[in-house]
Design brief:
The complex is a heterodimer.
Chain A (H helix, E strand, L loop, with lengths): L1 E3 L10 E7 L3 H13 L7 E5 L4 E6 L8 H4 L2 E9 L9 E3 L3 H18 L9 H4 L17 E5 L5 H5 L4 H8 L4 E2 H8 L3 H13 L3 E5 L2 E2 L21 H11 L6
Parallel strand pairs in A: 2-3, 2-4, 4-5, 5-6
Antiparallel strand pairs in A: 1-3, 7-8, 7-9, 9-10
Chain B lengths: L3 E6 L6 H8 L8 E3 L9 E3 L3 E8 L2 E7 L7 H8 L4 E7 L5 H11 L9 E6 L9 H10 L6 E3 L5 H18 L1
Parallel strand pairs in B: 1-5, 1-6, 6-7, 7-8
Antiparallel strand pairs in B: 2-3, 4-5
The chains are: A alpha/beta, B alpha/beta.
Amino acid sequence: MVFKTSMSASLAGFGLKLRPIHLSEREIATIDAFLRVGRHRLGCDWSVVLDGPCDVLMLGRPQHECALAEHADATAILPVQAGNDGQDAEALVRPLQYEAFVDALSALERTLLTSRPPTASPIPVATAASAETAPAHGAFSFGPQARFRLRRWPPAALLRAHRYNIRLASFMSGRHLGMEELARLSNVDKVLCDRFLVALRAAAILDVKLADTAVFPPLPAQGSAIPLSRHSPVEHRLLERIRVRLGLKGRQ
Amino acid sequence: MKDFKIVFTGPPGAGKTTAITTLSDSRPVVTDVRNTDVNLSKDNTTVGLDFGLIDLGNGQSVRLFGTPGQPRFKFMWRVIATDALGLVILNDNSLPDPLAELGIYLDAYKDVLPATNCVVGVGRMAQRSSPSIDDYSDVLSGRGLMVPVLPVDVRNRDDVLMLVEIVLAQAETRA
């Protein structure tokens, strides 16, 4: 039996399965409701499955009390425990809370998307995966050579997911930028930049280049047009002054 | 000495004059006259151009121009936008066919848009939520354009500043 949660079409496509065990029917119904309400905050198309392999197993009992076969097919385990148990900081606490649940799934999405084999995804990450993280550069999802640009303006739901997303998207609408450059220009923390990039990739609207080699086909119509502006190169200093004058500089 | 120019364009009533007034240091120069077009539900309409100024000091400034909205003044749209740092297309979602309205402006600037810093602001979403912002984005994407599109209330300075911030971000990365 599957309770399919509906995602906006633009974000759908990267499916993750959530399987609750040792949870009550009421808790499962709550999870299903949380997924429906929180779909705009999640980058992936989550579905609840009651049997078979899954990406995340929500475990309503301590793991040591469960048979190994119960969680052998899961990629990740999300424990659920009573509020006074206090053993596992990563666990969700009963009764289930919406914010904690969505936050936990968002964190798991990032982990699962970066660890998933490229072939498991319907989006064109097979080539982008070569730009993905090597252990040498820590927690980020893409390698230092990767440069990013939007293939199209992101869905409104994705932009609403975080107040910095519009700013990040704006900088990525002009040309390919590396993570360092994106963080510097936007003044947004690299962790948030990375989270946004992962969500864009999940929505299949992230164009990734490795160094100077295009990973995806070139974007349409670029470079063939006549620019209105003859201010090229635009003076960065003057742009900064405009920002300061309008009160945009340092605005959070 | 370098001055920058940001141009606001879009159909009549989309809020171009209001947006410029929101940003301008001084009272903007407007060329509004009493509206005689029965298709427009507004008392006055711009027949020349709107002009505002953001003074940066040292004799430098950002000039804000608003185009007249009615298509009969189309010949002015490109003239005003020539050499602009950015183009802000404002649309009114309460119009009968707002996506077609957007199309008029995308056609008018067709050959320059792919290389121009541009953003689309959609007003009166509260009055009419359809088409959605994603519908606008689909239209732009369908034309091969990577143009940001956001809901705006031009009476809200923060909303107008967001449009300008996007244009500046694009200018910075294209520099």
